[in-house]
Amino acid sequence: RRVHGGIHSVMSTNNEALVEASSAAIGAVFSSAALYPLDITKVKLQSCHDKQARFFELMLRTVREEGVMALFTGLRPKCLESLLSTFSYFYWYSILRHLQKQMKMTSTGASLLIAGVAGAINTSFTLPLDVLTTRLQTQSSQHKVGAWDMAYKIFDESGLLGFWRGYGVAVLLCCNPAINYTSFEMIKARAEALVLARNPNIRRHGVPILRAAQLFVIGLVAKAIATIVTYPLIRAKVILTSTPAKRSASPPVDSISEVQVVKATPHIPHSMLGVLMNIFKTDGILGWYKGCGEQIGITVIRSALLLMTKEYIQAFARTLAAPA
After folding, report:
1. Please, are residues 158 and 247 in contact by the beta-carbon 8 Å criterion?
2. Sign, Cα dihedral of 270, 271, 277, 283
3. Are 309 and 27 in contact (CB under 8 A)?
């Protein structure tokens, strides 16, 4: 009987993890596709060393020089990356969180550690797609290639390890979703407690206690906190993953929309600390936060959409699975 109960517990945990991961993955694809033109412009701005570059100016110039479809370059690999990375993260996060509850580790530090470990596992498998997407988003309009050609180009430059370029800073950035989702769960728990205190009869099986607008706002706040704390690492990662391992012999580009990495910076370091020091020397501390406002705006809305969608899909799936 004890063995049967243990097997049932494992199966229940696995099913719950699959539901949570699947609902989050659907939300991630939806939010990524909806905000992709803004996202690609943000990545170009982050990797650009031109101090005069502005977000909407960059977007308009891209459309003027390359057409509207240029704002959707790399959309398919981005959606695939969002699907796989979010599913993987939430699956492992759900499994580890269940173990955390079984071991009665309820501290904030334990929650952050669990989220960080889940992020590190996820990054190890999904970073190649992230590197490929970033290179597609920041490539020169004069030498545009598709996803397969870009993958071959990355392999030709530095072999298989080229797909894990920036792995160190990517692992460090695992603290971003850790801070984000831990903050979300903590704020949501407080908000639910307040709602239940005012109206104890609101709890119904399979129906979220909080409304969509409330979940959206909580998602906004949680992601804003995580983004501000980790932004210098985010920009360093974009620069590392958008820069070829081997310097091309072609002349530097002149258009802002082609991302003036080579033009504005004669030597681009190949380490996180080197990139951060290089930015500090040229632009000061404010250079670490170039594009931070746009990053917060886009990622906060995307994360809020993801979490709101996830909560409702997850609640719907539980309703379907519940006995009549």
Report:
1. no
2. positive
3. yes
